[in-house]
Give the backbone structure.
Amino acid sequence: AIIISELENVGKKYAKPRRSLLYYPTEGEDEAGEEPAPDYAVHLFFTREGYFKKITPQSLRMSGEQKLKEGDEITVQMETKNNAELLFFTSKCQVYKCRVGDFDDGKASVMGDYIAARLGMEEGETPVYMALTTDYKGHMFFLFANGKAAKVPMESYATKQNRRKLLNAFSDKSPLVYAAHLHEECELAIYTSAGRMLLVNSAQVPAKQTKNTAGVNVVTLKKNQSIIHVRRAANLELTDPHRYRVRTLPAAGAILRGEDTAEQMQLL
């Protein structure tokens, strides 16, 4: 009782109003204090070696040939807005998120930013695919060497906090052969090491919320066989596309005919 009384006296003698305020972030609040990027049109360029450029339309009209590292080539070219978001999927099954506005406007005469260094990727880690979004709609579609495919809603990569790096962005059970951000379902041409091809619609693969899902079996493969290449089928001119189109999965596909093989060699 004596101790309690003494504590009360100390509290009365030295009590002062709080000088600082307690701050509790509200639900849905993210990136507090970070101003939105200016909204204007830009052209984006991403190369096979992992270099990235952002160029305004005016600068692009005044530019000459794109400067690239020797042996490099542009694999992605698109027009968007400066406030869009970028997701770089990497060789270590991670994804690094940033905004287009995080990069300075560039010119065709420079090689651009080396993404692995700019985003602080781990040693030996390289970007394998760049996705662009403003609303996290659509799906990420992954095809693996073991014949499996995974379709993950893009919203699975959206975060309320300002997280720049997400682990387990896709499965590491088998080497990744193909990745694409699909805004709508489409038909894909899948080539195997056995000289076969099959046409599969992405709608045939069920979506999974888990980012690193191993996926479902799409291609029936024998021992030591694998998927070696994937491309969108829209621009293929096949003599008989129904020969390669499958209704149920998994499927082995059909042996590529000579005339179709020649057509593929021209496009690949």
Observations:
- The CA atoms of residues 190 and 230 lie 5 Å apart.
- The chain is about 10% helix and 30% strand.
